[in-house]
Amino acid sequence: MLKINRRKFVANTVSSGASLALGSRLLGSPRAEYAVSDTVEKTRNLMQEVLKYRKIDAHAHVDEEHYKPEVNLDFADRLGIEKLMISDFIRPHTEGTPDDFRARNNFVIKCMKAHPDRFIGTVALNPRYQQASLEEIDRCRDAGMIGLGELYNQVKINDPLYYPIIEKCIDISWNIMMHSPIGYSRVKLNPREPKDISLPEDFVDIARRYPEAMFQFAHIGGGIDWEHACKILKDAPNVFVETSGSNNEANMIDFAMKYIGEDRLVFGCDYSFYQGIGQILSAKLTEAQREKIFFGNISKRLKKGGRDVD
Ligand SMILES: [Zn+2]
């Protein structure tokens, strides 16, 4: 989850794009017509480029209010996203009781059942309720879910409460996707962040303790100091760094490539669809690198856990 109201942001983006095209058409002069056909041609070329790549969105959300499944699928259809790894995360500053996370996971299961070829469900849980969380993994796995995510800030990723959960994920080869904070490092931590938010250093700590576990550091575009995060995560080979978020500063992906590399970067949107794809396309990447980031890297992980999406 990110810090701005993404529905509003996406709606604004869509409407401003539409009004741009419409505005030129209304001008009516030959020059304006030329501008329209030029824009249409550029858009067509860009969309061909977008649709050329197979894609898995490694960070997607569903719920009944803000992240409606049909809105996710509408964007995914238009942008050539084959599959979305969905979760209904436990909201920050809430207790995250078993009743809460079970209900959220039930909604994810419902979405998966409605669209089994599109949605890959990942499990929300809270290690403060350790036994219930371990049982939830089994229950959700039986229902076809694969992986944990998006884990939130109820407990730090390197807290010992997580150990049995991570060990279980190692046994079943599940990806573990955890939220990352906003505003940390050379700037001060955003005061709204809870004390148990997982910092990049916490990811490195747990990744070293469990080198065989597979972690996913969520959304470097989510508002963190991404330069700092990439530098810290550079030497944690079992941590994927996922690119989603609505803070899409120029050069972020190029910078991440330098520190994290093409084998550990994974594409995600976190409901910022245009931005998620645009920043990969605008980075200085080869075809093969784009393929790995959009699809190949995460699909390999899913395969280890028993889901072959190829
Ligand atoms: Zn998040």
So what's the overall shape? globular
* Helix run count: 11
Number of E strands: 8
Bound molecules: zinc ion
**CATH level-1 class of the largest domain:** Alpha Beta
In CATH, what is the homologous superfamily of the largest domain?
Metal-dependent hydrolases
Distance between the termini: 28 Å
What average pLDDT do the residues reach? 89
Biggest sheet descriptor = 5 strands, parallel
* Helical percentage: 40-55%
Based on CA atoms alone, the radius of gyration comes out at 20 Å
Question: How much β-strand is present in the residues?
Answer: 5-15%
Number of domains: 2
List low-confidence stretches: 2-28
State the CATH topology of the largest domain: TIM Barrel
SSE string, helices as H and strands as E: HHEHEHEHEHEHEHEHEHH
CATH-defined architecture of the largest domain: Alpha-Beta Barrel
Q: Can you walk through the features of this model?
A:
By secondary structure, the protein is an alpha/beta fold. The chain has 2 domains: 7-52, no CATH class; 54-304, TIM Barrel (Alpha-Beta Barrel), CATH 3.20.20. Helices cover 48% and strands 10% of the residues. The strands form 2 sheets. Strands 4-5-6-7-8 form a 5-stranded parallel β-sheet, with helices on both faces. A 3-stranded parallel β-sheet has the order 1-2-3. Helix 1 (6-27) runs antiparallel to helix 2, helix 4 (98-114) runs parallel beside helix 5 and helix 7 packs parallel to helix 8. The protein is globular and about 65 Å long. Zinc ion binds next to loops. The site of zinc ion has 6 residues, from loops.
